[in-house]
Amino acid sequence: MLHRTLAALSLCATAFVPASLGAQQPSELVHALNRSGPRFGVTWLGGSITDTLKSKYKIDVAPVITQFGWQYERQFASLENGPVALNEWVLLIGGLDQGVFIPSLTWLVGIRTPGNLEFGVGPNATPAGVALAISMGVTFRTGALNVPINLAIVPSRFGARASILTGFNLYN
């Protein structure tokens, strides 16, 4: 009985799918865009993060550090103008303003709406430890130039980090 019900539902579902959509391959429905580019901004180090950096690595920094780096971003855009999937790797160097080198690597997976609002989540690794990063932002477009503004929060066992980053990339 269950097998017949599932077969009937599947037959009904295919009746509502346009023939042109059913015949298309995924590569015809989605195209990938490279939206990589430089990033810069500031990070606030909360909790005992500065103490942890000082005791473990002899890195003495103020609670606010500059960030500079590169974001490798692939956007998988739907040709139907809906939300798009994002895969981002953000490699940053923090503390250059204070004469220190604090690397950070974050992998974010998320979505961007047709209005260019975005949300992502993924792992973050720094000398202060590993944690889960949560990012949100908006991208402004002016001609062929995209200007993202992102806020990221990274709660960890040593305290939270909050970053605001901007940069640019070319719209292809």
In brief, what are we looking at here?
The protein is of the alpha+beta class. Helix content is 19%, strand content 57%.
Q: What is the number of beta strands?
A: 10
Low-confidence stretches: 11-22
Q: Which structural category fits the helices and strands?
A: alpha+beta
Strand % is: over 45%
So how many helices? 4
H-E order = HHHEEHEEEEEEEE
| Shape estimate | elongated
- How is the CATH topology named? Porin
Characterize the structure shown.
This protein has 172 residues and is of the alpha+beta class. It has one domain: Porin (Beta Barrel), CATH 2.40.160.20. Helices cover 19% and strands 57% of the residues. It contains four helices and ten strands, in the order αααββαββββββββ. An eight-stranded antiparallel β-barrel has the order 2-3-4-5-6-7-8-9. It is elongated.
Which helices and strands, and how do they pair?
Blueprint: H1 2-15, H2 19-23, H3 26-29, E1 30-34, E2 37-45, H4 49-57, E3 64-78, E4 84-94, E5 102-112, E6 117-126, E7 129-142, E8 145-156, E9 159-167, E10 169-170
Antiparallel strand pairs: 1-3, 2-3, 2-9, 3-4, 4-5, 5-6, 6-7, 7-8, 8-9, 8-10
Keywords:
single chain; 172 residues; alpha+beta; Porin; eight-stranded antiparallel barrel; 4 helices; elongated
